[in-house]
Amino acid sequence: MRHSEAELRALMTAGLDGDAATHAALLRALVPLLRGFFRRRMRGDEDIEDLVQETLIAIHTKRGTYDRDRPFTAWLYAIARYRLIDHFRRRRVSVPIEEVEAILLTEGFEEAVTARVDVERLLSGLSGKQARAIRDTHLEGLSVAEAAEGARIGQSDVKISVHRGLKALAARLRGHE
After folding, report:
1. Which CATH number does 5-106 carry?
2. What are phi and psi of 96, to 5 degrees?
3. What are φ and ψ of residue 152, in 5° steps?
4. What are phi and psi of 65, to 5 degrees?
5. Where does the RNA polymerase sigma-70 region domain lie (predicted)?
6. Which end of the chain is more exposed for a tag (fewer CB within 10 A), N or C?
7. How far, in Å, CA of 127 to CA of 32, rounded?
8. What pLDDT is stored for residue 111 in this prediction?
């Protein structure tokens, strides 16, 4: 099963908050993502499973460095990339210069960071309530009921905040601030 950024982030933060079962579930969910990451960069290498395990250990031991306000997958793939570089150093693997960029690029990292910065910049021009309602419902994937409960406001207030916030963003993007 493929997990979204919001789901992985939720598992990570629950684990950071002391939920050991959720942390274990996160590590299990990461196995196929990491296998795919390494498989695309290491043609037929028998060390893929070792790299997956090393990366999971690094994620577990370095979990305190995760910034809850940043995308989880960018942090995950940065760790995986460093594990891969360490692997190549240990094995003294030579890689053709044409392939270096493909190996080092983290899955969607640049796009994710750029998109996150753009979204945060746009949301910063809204009221706090509108920005949170949009973040919760459209970016984090929460239902209106979940967003309302988290913000301790009514569901209709969340709906109105989302509507007005999106309307303000659309006007700003059209240049009619």
Report:
1. 1.10.1740.10
2. -55, 140
3. 55, 45
4. -90, -10
5. 26-92
6. N
7. 39
8. 54
What the block records as the tokens of 107 is 């899955």
Which CATH code fits 125-173?
1.10.10
Give the C-alpha distances (Å, rounded to integers) separating 86 from 50, 91, 113.
12, 9, 24
Distance of alpha carbon 27 from alpha carbon 41, whole angstroms: 21
Cβ-contact 77, 109 below 8 angstroms: yes
Tell me the domain boundaries of the chain.
5-106, 125-173
Side chain identity at residue 114, one-letter code: T
Supply 114's token pair: 């750029």
Q: Which residue stretches of the chain are H helix? A: 5-16, 20-41, 48-61, 72-91, 97-104, 109-123, 128-134, 144-151, 155-173
